[in-house]
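Reopening this ticket.

The earlier resolution said the output was attached, but the attachment link was broken on my side. Pasting everything inline this time so it's all in one place.
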Amino acid sequence: MSSWYQFYYIILNSLFSIYIKNKIIPLHLLPEYNIDLTQPVLYILPYNSKFDLLILQKQCLKYNLPDPLTKLESHNYSLPCYLFIDDSNGIFSHCLSNTQFIKILRDYLDFLYCNPQLDIQIIPVWMIWGRSWNFKIRCESKSSYIFQKIKNFFLFLLNSCDNYYIHFSSVISLRKIMNRYNEHDQLIINKLVRVTRIYFFRQRLTLLGPYLPTRKEICNRLLQSKAIKKAIEDEARSKKILNQAAKLQAIKIIEEITANFSHQAIRITDYLMGLILKYVYQNINVHGGEYIQKLVQNGHEIIYIPCHRSHMDYLLLSYVLYHQGLCPPHIAAGINLKFWPVGPILCRLGAFFIRRTFKLDKLYSMVFKEYLSELFNQRCPIEYFIEGGRSRTGRLLKPKTGTLSMTLQAMLKNNNRSITFVPIYIGYENVIELNSYIKELRGELKVKEGFMQMINALFKLRNLGQSYVNFGKPLHLLNYLNQEVPEWYNAVNTIECQRPVWMTPIVNKIANCLMIRINKACAVNAINLCATALLASNQRSLSRQKLLEQLECYIQLLCNVPYSSESTISNMSAEAMLIYVIRMNIFTIKKNNISEIIILSNTKSVLMTYYCNNIHHMLAMPSLIAIIIYKHGEISTIELLHQVSLIYPMLKNELFLPWHRSNLPILLNKLCNELMRQGIITIKNNTRLQFIKQRIQTLKLLAATIHQTLQRFFITLSIINFKCIINNAILEKESRILTQRIAVLKGIDVPECFDKVAFTSLISTLRHEGYISASSVINAQGVRTILKILRKLMNNDVFKIIEQTIHCK
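Inline output:
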């Protein structure tokens, strides 16, 4: 390299060190690329840019990778360690032309022929400044190139706060390509160019998303849709109005629904969100995001399915995806959020608005369905909350399948789509809307979102602890349909004419599968575990030593018998967890002469139930085993399995548990072995389980976790048995009233006592399991059998209240 270019690079490098912030995506994957430092490396970049080359050099030196500005020197060869894939028309002749590019590749092939012991490791490197489609433009003429350089210089000054994004591809072995094509040099070069161009295109699509039409263009496309034209005609005919008036209604609906995605708005919001989130959360823990990048790069259309706990969900998830090097998705948001100024802002961030219900509005339904199909046609990543609304209890809600059904119908119109659902668990140590959730469960009206409510929420923002975003196991829609409904292909292109009979059942199965996978990606934190332990005690208080012992029991259970491979648990010790929670001023501490007492006040007990419910499904099975052994004192392994098998379907449906009933023996064996390892239970004569008296307090606290849930089961079954009520609405109401009565008498205040959905879900399961037949006939024998099992697990005082209340009415 001449002294002029050395001086030129020094000047540019000095400028970059001041203005440019580099970001490698994904940084944590660099060690997994298995780069052999003993073999030569050739970097291939998309553009003939010295900016890119110098930044690449800086990052390579930082992470101990070969320097791209060095040369491969060997005998008669002096080869550069970088290449630009695009044709060059730079100002300086030092930039490589396409002819030179091919010549150098040929030289590399000759080099390998002469050195059979060596391999050339090719690493395509995608680099882009900022997150906008209009930054890099290829220029054909010298004058246009100079003009573009001037324009880019001013863009550089205006956007100097933007990151320079760098993505290293996996290593490509040039030796393997040579062996495959048997010395056909031109085929090798063509193959290499094609592979790198595809990689660069897919990486651009991953980072920036598809190039989107304007809002006006989308409106025109929708109005040209045959389905919407027919819906407009039907609307005019049914309401006896002119076609033009019906068309104006359709335009109004389109304007109400459609997003107005803006990369500039995303960039500004990202900067502001970065400041807010650093102030609000101590840390944002992300797990499993790297696999999503591979899906996008392989051409999958991604639909994100997160759980819904807070209004922070969509902001937090979009922020995380943006910093994972993925394009933020278009988000289905409730129409209640379309108020000024939030509505216009969310619209530019990719939100499209949906009404709570529109079954009776055929025109709205058709417009929304076609808009969703248009987003799929554009290959936009999409996000919607399958629960419909935010969970008020901390558990997953029963899924709403309307949007999911529309997704499946859109796929059937074009069967070559590779749609993949990505379930996501979002968890918090502090949910700012929690007080309003409790009020709503107790019957108060939901406060409508508006400008003043937004201002009040901003004042509540404070240190909210940590947040968690865990990506679950993706569900590939085509593979799922091929496995579950092989005849689905017959419905392709006929979906508008006739809805296939398998559609509703398969949509319900997919929805249930996604809920299970969300739960499997659960994140366990210190707040969850401490709340679970204290709420299990009768007085909502434990000594410090007992609380630590209980936390250790939970931690070992979750680590040694993991709920799933996607779930995560805090790596803090029990002692560190307790210290962390105490610093958050959630609990009251009283000291006596013996030890410290950790107390959960009555006011905070209700709030902590929400966080306890976040992980309730993870401790449900250990807790069920514990309460059966605790109440019986001693029980055979066969009887334990029998009782668990009868209770499990109700738990599975309510908590979206992942195990099939046939897997219960293996699961129970693992959990019982772990409880024995901890010294909580023991086995006698290899057949009978019993608790160890010295650890009975730990077993009792573990058992209490599931007690309230089993109590609700017992109440509903008792009403069916004694009063023979089989009407869903009356049974749900009677069960809820009795549960609330017991809660008041016993001083128990938990959200699910007021939650209609929990009882509705239970009644549905009882019908599915045959306790109530399709013709509304009660299976008296089955009801009495499970009542007998549950009666043994109830406290005597609770049983008396239930019995007296039922017989008195």
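Reporter confirms the inline version is readable. The first helix runs from residue 3 to 19. Confidence is low (pLDDT under 50) at residues 88-96, 135-143.
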